[in-house]
Amino acid sequence: MKQVIVGFELDEVGDWLAILACGHGQHIRHSPPLVNRPWVQTAAGRGRFLGYPLDCKLCDQENQDQHE
Predict the structure, then answer these.
(1) What are the φ/ψ torsions at residue 34 (nearest 5 degrees)?
(2) Cis upstream peptide for 33 (omega within 30°)
(3) CA distances from 57 to 26, 31, 48, 61, 65 (A)
């Protein structure tokens, strides 16, 4: 289920989480060469992605659980 990014916060080990409109968090890591997201390392970069839709796997799982 698509949810937009409404904010960002750091987790307990210093990795960035995108906070989604549904209230769930999703890690947004910059760990080259596997994942290249240098924009997450600056406030301006993160600001450009506010409102960007991501697939929320937790919402998908909750929705699936309700229909079983």
Answers:
(1) -75, -45
(2) yes
(3) 9, 21, 22, 6, 12
Dihedral of CA atoms 1, 57, 32, 8 in degrees, nearest 10, equals 80
Asked whether the predicted pLDDT for residue 68 surpasses 80, the reply is no
Q: What is the pLDDT of residue 23?
A: 96
Place of tokens 């919402």: 59
Sheet of strand 25-27, all strands in order from the earlier edge strand to the far edge: 25-27, 16-20, 2-10, 53-55
Contact 37, 3 (CB under 8 A): no
The tens digit of pLDDT for each residue in 9-50 reads: 999 999 999 999 999 999 998 887 888 999 999 999 999 999
